[in-house]
Amino acid sequence: MADVILRLVDLAALERLRSMSVDQLVLTFESGRLAEERPAGDPRFHRGFAVDIEGDFLEWADAADDGLDAAASLILCDWASVAEWRCWDGRLFLYVEPLLDERLEGAEVFGSAEIWQRLATALASSDRESYSESVILDWMERRQKLGESLNPDEDPRILPTMESHRTLTESLYNFIELSHDPRLTLLIGREYLSPEDWVLGETRLAEVVA
Length: 210
Fold this sequence. Notes:
Blueprint: E1 3-10, H1 11-18, H2 22-31, H3 50-63, H4 70-79, E2 81-88, H5 89-100, H6 113-123, H7 128-145, H8 158-178, E3 184-190, E4 199-200, E5 203-204, H9 205-208
């Protein structure tokens, strides 16, 4: 299983970067002049360290022979992001299906902007605790249907797994709530996915740089 990765990108900050030439970006990243211009991160979420991201861009620039491509754009999106949320794609079925009241076909659906828009709409009529509890109850019902025990004495993984589901669903709720900020745009990807196939808003990065 691979992680699905969601980031919230400050579009204005990204466009400032994309308005610069590769040489200008190299000079500003090398000098550290952009450090104070990076959008403030939301402390509830992880995001990449600026120095690491800037190093990734400089490494890309060393091998580049043309303008910005999808790989460079993905690095710049990372720099302009304020929050990141990630989860195993297998677990996402547990977190999304109960709200949409349907069974989803294939993990590829999580790479679509539509599924996250639908989830955001569904979550708008719920609160964080209710959403988390509904996911946990659904997970317990699924285990029972599979004939698996819910007794912690029989399966010591039950309580840690339940707490993990609670933590992830509550943070997903917070992330989706934050995504309503009009300054932010959702970036969708996954581990091992080509930069061209990441989706910013509703557009593949391959098309963003075309």
